[in-house]
What we know:
- By secondary structure, this protein is of the alpha+beta class.
- The protein has four helices and five strands.
- The longest helix is centred in the C-terminal third of the chain and has 15 residues, at about 85-100.
- The mean pLDDT is about 90.
Amino acid sequence: xxxxxxxxxxxxxxxxxxxxxxxxxxxxxxxxxxxxxxxxxxxxxxxxxxxxxxxxxxxxxxxxxxxxxxxxxxxxxxxxxxxxxxxxxxxxxxxxxxxxxxxxxxxxxxxxxxxxxxxxxxxxxxxxxxxxxxxxxxxx
Length: 140
């Protein structure tokens, strides 16, 4: 079942975020961030028998360079033990429909270069690689 994340989902989503980024984030700081994002983003979870096995963070906003409303997938992760079971496909399609229903003209995302399997997934779901993303670390 796909539904919006709520505050009681925090610990389960936290574990998925840590897995996605291959690190263990500060628990208290992450809780503060998630509590803020629940109110400003649309975060969906895939739940199976009270176990959250995937999530997708969708941000919808107007962007000047599109002159319209855009949906951006900020984060997207399925528990590795549950991959290849179409859970990611269901979350992606749900987000795509949600974005369309909310008047978005584009669905964007950025993904790490090392996630080759994810790149193939996005291409298989109709996405095109059209941009480069540059980052600058501001912390020494």
